[in-house]
Every structure is written in C-alpha cells, then in structure tokens.
Amino acid sequence: MRTTTKIQLMVMMFLMFFTWGAWYGQMGKYLIVGLGASGDQTGNAYATFSIASIIAPFFVGMISDRYFSAQKVMGVLNIIGAAILYFLIQTKDPDAFFWYILAYTLSFAPNLALSSSIAMNQMQNPEKEFPSIRVLGTIAWIAVTNIVGYYAIGDKVTIFQISMFTSLALGIFAFFLPDTPPKATTKASSLGEILGTEAFVLFKDRSYAIFFIASVLVCIPLSFYYAHANLSLTESHMSSVENKMSLGQVSEVFFMLLIPFALSKFGIKKMLIVGLVAWIIRFVCFGYGDGISSEWILYLAIVLHGVCYDFFFVTGQIYTDNKAGDKIKNSAQGLITLATYGIGMGIGSKISGIVLDKFSTTDASGAVTHDWTSVWMVPAGIAAVVLVLFIVFFSENKTKAA
User: Fold this and answer.
1) Of the residues 119, 184, 219, 221, which has the fewest C-beta atoms closer than 10 A?
2) Are the C-beta atoms of residues 145 and 139 closer than 8 Å to each other?
3) In this structure, are residues 237 and 288 in contact, taking their beta carbons and an 8 Å threshold?
4) 8 A C-beta contact, residue 227 and residue 25
5) Which DSSP letter does residue 304 get?
6) SS3 89
7) DSSP secondary-structure letter at 204?
8) Per residue in 309-326, pLDDT tens?
9) What's the rounded Cα separation, in Å, for the pair 158 and 268?
C-alpha cells in the first residue's frame, strides 16, 4: 500500500486505542473512589462492554456491511460517542453512569471490527502488513495510561474528558480514511452467519469443545483484572499505578513476538497450559503482593499479562483458525469472540462486582476497605479449575475439523 495510506491507518489505530485506553483500565477506580459506587455497580459498568460486544456484530453485519462505507460509519459512531461522553462526565450518580457508559460502549464496540475491515481492505498481504499497523494500538494504550499515571488522574473524570476529545478527533479523521464501500452482495447476512453458528461443526471435536468452554470460563478471571487491578494496586500502596500497569502492554508485545517460536517448539496444548498457569500465579501475586514490603510481587503480576493474554487468547485464535479451515474461518473467529468478550467477560464483570462487595467492609466513618487477598483468590480458583479441566480432557490434534 502507499505510505500515506499506511500512515492514515496507523493514526486510526492510535486514536481508537488511545480513546479506549484512557478510561477502560481506570473506570473501576473512578467509580469507587470518584463516584462512591459499589462493587456491583462497578461490575455492571464493565459488563456494558460485553453487551456492546454482543450487539456490535449485528450492527456491523446487518448495517455497515450492507449499506454504508465502513469509514463513514466509524466517523458517525465516534462523533456520537463524543457527544455521549459529554453528558457522561456531568453525572455523579453511579446508577445514571451505567446508562451513559452503556450508550457509549454501544457506539465504541463496532470500531474494533470496522477498523480491521478498513485496514485489511487496503492490504495485499494482511498477515505481513496488519501487525505493523495494529501495534500502534498497543503503543497508544501504553502512551495514554502513562499520561494518566503521570498526572495522577486515574480516579478523576478527566479520563473520560480525554476520551471525549480523541473520540471527536477520530470521528472527524475517519471521513478522510480510504474508502471501504459496503460488500457487493445481494444477499443479506443471516443471523447464523453473524453469530458464527456455521462453526458449531467444530464442537464435534471434543478437544475443541473443551478449549471453547475453557476460553469462556477464563474470561471470568480476565474481567477481574480489568475491573479491579488498578484499585487493588493503589490500595496495596503502589505508586504511579497506571504507569507501572502499562508494563503489561509492553509484555504483551514482547510475548506476541515469541508466539511463532513457542508454537513450533512446544505446540498448542503446552502453550495454552502455560497461559492458564500464568493466570493462577498472577492472581496469587495480586493477592499477596504489597507496594511497601514486596512490590516486586506486584510487578510480576503486571508483566505476566503478556503470557496470560498472548499464550492463551492469541494462541487460541491461531488454534481456532487452524481447526476451522478456510470455509468457516470467519464464522469460527466470530463465534469465539462473541462467546469470550461478550458472554464470558459479561458474566465475569458481574461476578467480579459481587465478589468485591462480599469482601468489602465499611467502618464507622464510612471509609471502605477491601480484602484483596480473598478477592483475588476467587479468579485464581476459577483459573485452577479451568486448568485441571483442560489438562484432563484436551488433546492436541493437528488435523482440521472442518
């Protein structure tokens, strides 16, 4: 592709993930510290992204793929998102906040599919060209979380103000992106195609069915991390939390580069097992680390993010791709994404809020304290159950199921 086109796509990725990264990892702390929300209210707020992730495929598959150019849809959605954020930053009521963040995530979630569609439409060889463009998203996330940490605004409404301005910028910029017209087809996408039900044939393979169930279940611990890690680290006396948490994204880039070597050396099953073991170790570290006497334990928990995410979720996407084959590849990826980010993380967000409330106490002055060791043992236990299930029932089979 032309250099100018590549730069445009890089800027698109940077703005999109800058907008998302400004608030997502910090929202839990903002709600509890800034708005006095309960754990359940915080969990519900995070569940909105899962709701939006379930609805987004319908929106993209039935509307943008059929009637409008992808870049124009992206532009309109982000301008609407900026307007919603304007009203969100005015509210001080956690219950009202839920409805604003639900409306905003509904406008933001389609960006993930739209951005990939816009980028790949310009590529001759996506396998080689896409990573260098997508990595700008990770760089943006690292950049914005360090800005939030440097100015110590993780519990301030400023995180949403940043997103409001960058969402508006992305909305305007999107109209100048390369044209990605609707797919030239006369047949509307069916409900089954959008949900990825064509990929149900993969469940005939017991090992893939086990992997699928494990993927959904491990998203419950993942939700605990996104919702509570920032506040947990802050209350564990770690300073500059957002800056230090960005090491998790640095780790993610590093271990992603190791995946091709690790796959050839160890194979799918061992990599997935390593990813699950890393989840357990990570949550134990979050539960027992302390920013005063044992900060290194908290650092270990942070940098394990790359192993946890890449060795299970990214490797799992590769495993799904290999099992599905060309005919149902898109359906299979759509189904696993819907099940994990939609259903799995939705359930996890709700459970994480309930667990936080269970291990919270309020003293006579109204101050709330959390028993973080007990909180983190819940996702560690879930990950351990998934690990046992996986080791016992999963066997690596290199033949394709479809």
Assistant:
1) 184
2) no
3) no
4) no
5) T
6) coil
7) G
8) 888 887 887 788 778 766
9) 42
Place of tokens 């992730």: 53
> From the DSSP assignment, how many helices (H) and strands (E) are in the chain?
18, 2
CA dist 17 and 237 (Å) reads 28
- Buried (b) or exposed (e) across 336-365, using 16+ Cβ within 10 A? bbbbbbbebbbbbbbbbbebbbebeeeeee
Per-position b or e across 273-297, b if 16+ CB within 10 A of its CB: bbbbbbbbbbbbbbbbbebeeebeb
Q: For residue range 69-127, what is the model confidence (pLDDT) as tens digits?
A: 889 989 999 999 999 999 999 999 999 999 999 999 999 988 887 887 788 788 777 66
DSSP string, 162-203: HHHHHHHHHHHHHTTSPP-PPP--SSPPPHHHHHTGGGGGGG
End-to-end alpha carbon distance in the chain: 33
DSSP 276: H
Q: How many CB atoms lie within 10 A of CB 318?
A: 14
Contact 115, 68 (CB under 8 A): no
The answer to whether the CB of 340 falls within 8 A of the CB of 216 is yes
CA-based angle 13:47:15, to the nearest 5?
A: 15
User: Mean of the pLDDT values across residues 31-56?
Assistant: 92
* Res 401: pLDDT: 46
Q: Fill in the DSSP letter of residue 359.
A: T
Closest CA to 24 of 162, 218, 171: 162
For the segment 202-212, what is each residue's pLDDT rounded down to a tens digit?
888 888 899 88
- Tell the residue number behind the tokens 């839920």, with chain if given: 98
In contact, 331 and 284? CB cutoff 8 Å: no
- 291 phi and psi, to 5 degrees? -70, -10
